[in-house]
Specification:
This protein folds into three domains: 3-100 and 201-262, Adenylosuccinate Synthetase, Chain A, domain 1 (3-Layer(aba) Sandwich); 104-197, Adenylosuccinate Synthetase, subunit A, domain 2; 266-423, Alpha-Beta Complex (Adenylosuccinate Synthetase, Chain A, domain 3), CATH 3.90.170.10. The protein contains twelve helices and 20 strands. It has helices spanning 16-23, 76-88, 108-121, 133-141, 154-175, 183-197, 204-213, 245-250, 285-294, 312-322, 361-366, 392-405; strands at residues 3-8, 29-32, 41-45, 48-52, 65-68, 73-74, 97-100, 104-105, 201-202, 218-221, 259-267, 270-272, 306-308, 310-311, 326-330, 340-349, 352-354, 368-375, 409-413, 421-423. The strands form five sheets. A ten-stranded mixed β-sheet has the order 9-7-5-2-10-1-11-15-19-20, with helices on both faces. Strands 14, 16, 17 and 18 form a four-stranded mixed β-sheet that branches. Strands 3-4 form a two-stranded antiparallel ribbon. Strand 3 and strand 4 (48-52) form a beta hairpin. Helix 3 crosses helix 4, helix 3 (108-121) runs parallel beside helix 5 (154-175) and helix 5 (154-175) crosses helix 6 (183-197). The longest helix is centred in the middle third of the chain and has 22 residues, at 154-175. It binds inosinic acid. Inosinic acid (IMP) binds at residues 11-13, 38-40, 126-129, 131, 133-134, 223-224, 228, 237, 239-240, 273-274.
């Protein structure tokens, strides 16, 4: 059985957690391939409500092995805390979690550097989650990163860490005027991580590939969203990894012919956390109403998410760079209590109509959205499980989004629980 990817198609927080939890019923492996604990995946299932940041969401199904690929940056303290919390709530990950030896570690100095760099940006701040993600990927590209594999040879790690920390401490101290970190303390943390994580470290590429050859089903769990992609997002207001389909290949060492389906998860409206262009943003009462109703506050940082209408220009771009074979629409029920709904169909720039997403954040800032209006629907969609039971207005909204995006919507989420799902076309999964 081939692998299929579940990707965030907007700015993250599309509700991928619920969707992966739903789809993982048929999976053998659920694998993360990008990002780190900047991600926050909320899952509400019969075992309770969970907020996961690094552990793949599929682990609530007992047959599933969770995999953390080489493309992820791992904060070991965060990971160990999640493993422990899950254990306390009856979900045992012994023999069910595998972390790539090639994954890079988010070191304590990365977290310090993230905060200092963000402060120094002043009015140009990105609004990072402050989890050290950017600096960890920076070190990876600079070839001074510390990898999970380094925990397996602590003797060899010490002189390397000494070198790297001399460099990082100089930046902390001399560039930002911050407090340098102690080598001994960081090395002690590494020793503890090594002893506690040892059992989970393994050759992820081989395990995932062998599982696919044996006919098993692998779900690739995206984090963040296409519009936050380092290359394809609204640079520089992006994350430092590749939440797009390319990231799934490099972030797990998968050959290109192994991924058959690519599911793009869209929310029925838009949200964005942090700074950067967001054309359809709602600044008034409607935005606040949606935020409160939907609980649009960051799972990782608690920050209020910016809320806006669905942007089909960005959505079409997201399709172009990811080649979604199916779409998933989440949080349709949030629109139930609105008096009217808008969808952005194109932008206007200097008197011209723009239908392709601009490549520059500065150009994007100069565009204004062109909207199409939709009347409110007369009864709730919340909890509906059959497409034909949706109110006429909601069906029309979904059909119009399909037209605007240019792909069929195969799965619709009408509430946070697994059963609050409409499978429009049953072959979304396997
Ligand atoms: P970083 O990934 O912490 O460096 O943050 C860079 C940008 O990506 C900021 O605007 C963050 O708010 C945003 N971001 C990072 N992770 C997520 C996520 O999981 N959901 C939504 N936005 C995110």
């Amino acid at each position: 059985m081939p692998a299929y990817a579940v990707l965030g198609a907007q700015w993250g927080d599309e509700g991928k957690g619920k969707i992966v939890d739903f789809l993982a019923r048929d999976a053998d492996i659920v694998a993360r391939f990008s990002g780190g604990n900047n991600a926050g995946h909320t899952v509400m299932n019969p075992m309770g409500t969970f907020k996961l940041h690094l552990v793949p969401v599929g682990v609530f199904w007992p047959q599933v092995i969770g995999v953390i690929g080489n493309g992820v940056v791992v904060d070991p303290d965060g990971l160990l805390q999640e493993i422990e919390e899950l254990q306390q709530r009856g979900i045992d990950l012994t023999d069910r979690l595998l972390v790539s030896e090639r994954a890079h570690i988010v070191m304590p100095y990365h977290i310090v550097l993230d905060e200092l760099a963000e402060l120094a940006r002043g009015s140009e701040a990105i609004g990072t989650t402050g989890r050290g993600i950017g600096p960890a990927y920076t070190d990876k590209a600079a070839r001074i990163g510390i990898r999970i594999a380094d925990l397996l040879d602590l003797e060899a790690l010490l002189p390397r860490l000494d070198n790297v920390m001399a460099h990082q401490n100089a930046i902390i101290d001399k560039v930002y005027g911050g407090q340098p970190l102690s080598l001994d303390k960081v090395y002690d943390r590494c020793k503890e991580w090594a002893s506690r994580l040892m059992q989970f470290i393994g050759p992820v590429e081989h395990v995932v590939y062998d599982a696919l050859q044996a006919g098993r089903t692998v779900v690739l769990e995206g984090a963040q969203g296409a519009m936050l992609d380092l290359d394809h997002g609204t640079y520089p207001y992006v994350t430092s990894s590749h939440p797009t389909i390319g990231g799934a290949y490099t972030g797990l060492g998968l050959p290109p012919n192994q991924i058959e389906s690519v599911l793009g998860v869209f929310k029925a409206y838009s949200t964005r956390v942090g700074h950067g262009p967001f054309l359809t943003e709602l600044h008034g009462e409607t935005g606040s109403k949606i935020r409160e109703l939907a609980g649009e506050f960051g799972t990782t940082t608690g920050r209020a998410r910016r809320v806006g209408w669905f942007d089909s220009v960005a959505a079409r771009y997201s399709v172009r760079i990811n080649g979604y074979t199916s779409l998933v629409l989440t949080r349709l029920d949030v629109l139930d209590s609105l008096d009217s709904i808008k969808v952005c169909t194109a932008y206007e720039l200097d008197g011209e109509t723009v239908t392709d997403f601009p490549g520059s954040a500065a150009v994007l800032e100069r565009c204004t959205p062109i909207y199409e209006d939709f009347p409110a629907w007369d009864r709730p969609t919340a909890g509906v499980t059959d497409f034909d039971d949706l109110p006429v207005g909601a069906r029309a909204y979904v059909r119009r989004l399909e037209e605007l995006i240019g792909r069929p919507i195969d799965l619709i989420s009408t509430g946070p629980y697994r059963h609050e799902t409409i499978e429009v076309r049953s072959m979304i999964a396997v």
